[in-house]
Design brief:
Elements lengths: L6 E7 L3 H12 L6 E8 L4 H8 L6 E6 L4 H11 L4 E4 L5 E2 L3 H11 L3 E11 L5 E5 L24 E3 H7 L11 H10 L4 E13 L5 H4 L2 H14 L1 H5 L2 H45 L1
Parallel strand pairs: 1-2, 1-4, 2-3, 6-9
Antiparallel strand pairs: 4-8, 5-9, 6-7, 6-8
């Protein structure tokens, strides 16, 4: 490994060993090559995963083994070990495009006030088929980030500075059901750092058959939202007017959508009735 590492890619892995090689390959194929990869086996119970990670030998890569403590702790442990100035979390079942690191590093090197560099992303279905490209609809300007509907516009696979991670205390382990990445991004924003969005698809999000995102219940989401608020209470209270205005806007939009759906359903019913009557009249005549 290189002595002066610029980027550390941290990769928690829990029972997803069969995807790890593909994820690592996407990093090794970067046009920017000054990096290291730290994989954290987060107490996997899957025999295949443990076999793969116990014998994993790839360039610029090392594997740490810990008891299962969740992705927040796994990422924090990897970042503690990181030699890189910049950090990129990458889940074991996801991949990045070849130029992502090069473009993100350039932005961070030239903009001291930028704390997060993110991008658009491609969602891959459970069967490995392309599903959609996500292009966030809002500008990355505070305080839009406080709207919970914006949480999915910040992929966990975004770059940040290790020094900022240290100032925030890292990923919060009280985020038990997910959203620990969104909670962490708010911590970076509280440092008065900016977000830079690269308007390109540079990250591939793979929807595997079983993941935390797909298994979250409504109750889990409620707890997660409340915990984010508790973790950043002052930030939310200082921007309560913006949040309330946005809540009203969301409610009005929902009302309009429901009204539109009712009209659409009525139109479809009337169309079927019209076609049916035409067929009946044609039969009579």
């Amino acid at each position: 490994m290189e002595e002066n590492v610029k980027v550390t890619v941290v990769m928690p892995c829990y029972n997803q060993g069969k995807y790890v090689n593909k994820a690592v390959n996407s990093v090794l194929n970067q046009t920017f090559q000054n990096f290291e990869i730290i994989i954290v086996n987060d107490g996997s119970t899957d025999e295949e995963t443990n076999k793969i990670l116990n014998n994993f030998k790839r360039p610029k890569t090392k594997v740490l083994h810990i008891n299962n403590q969740g992705p927040s702790v796994a990422r924090n442990i990897a970042i503690q070990e990181a030699r890189g100035e910049y950090i990129l979390p990458l889940d074991a079942d996801d991949t990045i495009e070849p130029t992502y690191m090069e473009k993100a590093v350039k932005i961070l090197e030239n903009n001291d006030n930028v704390g997060i560099v993110c991008c658009n992303w491609r969602t891959i279905s459970k069967l490995g088929v392309f599903r959609k490209i996500t292009t966030p609809k809002f500008n990355y300007k505070f305080p839009e980030h406080l709207n919970f509907r914006s949480k999915s516009c910040f992929p966990v696979t975004s770059f940040f500075r290790k020094v900022d991670w240290g100032k925030t205390g890292g990923f919060n382990k009280n985020m038990l059901y997910g959203m620990e990445d969104y909670d962490f991004w708010l911590s970076i924003i509280e440092l008065d750092k900016k977000i830079y969005h690269i308007p390109e698809v540079l990250f591939n999000y793979n929807r595997v058959f079983k993941s935390r995102d797909t298994s979250m219940t409504i109750e889990d989401q409620k707890i997660s939202y409340f915990t984010v608020f508790q973790n950043h209470k002052e930030l939310y209270l200082n921007n309560i007017e913006t949040i309330l205005n946005n809540s009203v806007e969301i409610s009005l939009n929902n009302i309009r959508i429901k009204s539109l759906n009712k009209r659409l359903i009525l139109l479809i019913i009337l169309t079927y009735v019209f076609v049916f009557l035409c067929l009946v009249l044609k039969g009579i005549l």
